[in-house]
Design goal:
Layout lengths: L19 H12 L16 H12 L4 E5 L2 H11 L7 E5 L6 H8 L2 E5 L9 H7 L4 E7 L8 H10 L3 E5 L7 E2 L2 E2 L6 E5 L12 E5 L2 H11 L2 H7 L19 H10 L3 H22 L3 E2 L13 E4 L15 E2 L10 H7 L6 H9 E4 L11
Parallel strand pairs: 2-3, 2-4, 4-5, 5-8
Antiparallel strand pairs: 1-9, 6-7, 8-9, 10-11, 11-13, 12-13
Helix pairs in contact: 1-9, 2-9, 3-7
The structure holds pyridoxal-5'-phosphate.
Pyridoxal-5'-phosphate binds next to helix 3.
């Protein structure tokens, strides 16, 4: 095979990269019972979960954060805290990671699929057309680290009114005019899974500016003891045993906390490399990076490109460029059709599924560590 001229830009680390400071933090946390409270006890006021939540809230300019055991769990808690229930309509993009549908099914809520724009994120114009008096929530996905149009979506949600949720699971570090994603919605979800910007093994975070939303999420997905320690409205306390099992493992919080200081340098290295790679792809002309690839607020959760040509030319394309990631628009999936019936067309999302190719390891493109 002809060596790809793009290879130097796509040079990547094993992911997650080995950080001695993470290993030391885990060792220190597990050694603590010799000197004080065990990290595995998980209920002391200085436990790493509290520290991770407060550090993460600062990172994304949010007032409150609740750590969970996955990004999907944070999305579910956002829906619950937003009061989504039976018969409520939830507007979401027809292109994206569709795991939230399982929670809409469980809540007996109704997904309303809106189209995406040229960046393949939720299109505010399409959302505005889908709003009805039954709209309870709007979910925007920051697809592969590319920020969705949050200011316009915020206006639509306020006018509806609807609870605005950001799925920022693949977009930690993305910004809009310098403001971090996660700070625009009524709640936002982040993921700390294996291919994410802040890998903790597994984990997630719900963030919000609203104490009532934070407490409602905590009531729905934390241990009642934790809720009792933090909540100012104990009347909203969950009944024992009726909360969702979404607590983060304390060692995932230790790992997250020790990894946060590396994020800014990783972001800079990744942006530099993937911009160069996109520039070269454009010059080669065989595939086009997605609209907005040069946006300084892009967090590069993955590299998405589009091509009309289903044959992949080894002279220009990275060997790892694959079909996907969405393939079938959400409103056309068999399970969705069986559960909720047909939806109006979403031509841009449908076209995106035809043209998409992706390079999933983009977060690992930080080059070699010195
Ligand atoms: C856009 C998006 N939403 C939600 C999730 C779910 O996150 P998790 O795997 O942590 O549950 C992912 C995971 O890849 C994602 O990319």
């Amino acid at each position: 095979m002809i060596a790809s001229p793009l290879a130097p830009f796509a040079e990547r680390q094993a992911w997650p990269p080995y950080l001695p400071e993470v290993a030391e933090a885990v060792f220190a946390a597990l050694s603590a019972p010799l000197t004080g409270t065990s990290v595995l006890d998980g209920v002391s006021d200085d436990d790493p979960i509290n520290a991770f939540e407060s550090r993460f809230a600062d990172l994304v300019d949010a007032r409150f954060a609740l750590a969970t055991n996955s990004g999907a769990a944070a999305l579910h808690l956002a829906l619950l805290a937003g009061g989504v229930g039976p018969g409520d309509e939830v507007i979401l993009p027809a292109y994206g990671w569709g795991q939230i549908l399982v929670f809409l099914d469980a809540l007996d809520a109704v997904p309303v699929f809106a189209d995406v724009d040229a960046s393949w994120c939720l299109d505010p114009a399409s959302v505005a057309e889908r709003v009805t008096p039954r709209t309870r929530a709007i979910v925007a996905i920051h697809v592969a680290g590319r920020p969705a149009s949050m200011p316009a979506l915020r206006e639509i949600a306020d006018a509806a009114p609807a609870f605005l949720i950001e799925d920022a699971c693949s977009a930690l570090g993305a910004t809009i005019a310098g403001r971090p994603v996660g700070s625009f919605g009524d709640a936002a979800a982040f993921s700390f899974g294996p291919r994410k910007h802040l890998p903790c093994g597994e984990g997630g975070m719900l963030v919000t500016h609203d104490r009532a939303v934070w407490e409602a999420a905590m009531a729905a997905g934390s241990h009642p003891h934790r809720f009792a320690r933090h909540a100012r409205t104990p009347a909203a306390a969950p009944n024992h045993e009726t909360f969702w099992p979404y607590r983060i493992h304390p060692l995932a919080a230790v790992i997250g906390l020790a990894t946060v200081p590396s994020l800014a340098a990783w972001h800079a290295a990744r942006s530099h490399r993937l911009r160069r790679l996109c520039q070269t792809l454009l010059e080669e002309g065989a595939v086009a990076p997605l609209a907005g690839w040069n946006d300084p607020g892009h967090a590069w959760g993955a590299l998405l490109v589009q091509t009309e040509d289903p044959r992949e030319s080894p002279s220009v394309l990275l060997p790892d460029l694959r079909p996907g990631p969405v393939r079938v628009p959400l409103h056309r999936r068999p399970g969705v059709l069986a559960r909720w019936g047909t939806s109006p067309p979403c031509p841009v999302a449908e076209n995106a599924c035809r043209l998409e190719r992706w390079f999933p390891d983009a977060v690992a493109c930080i080059g070699s560590r010195p």
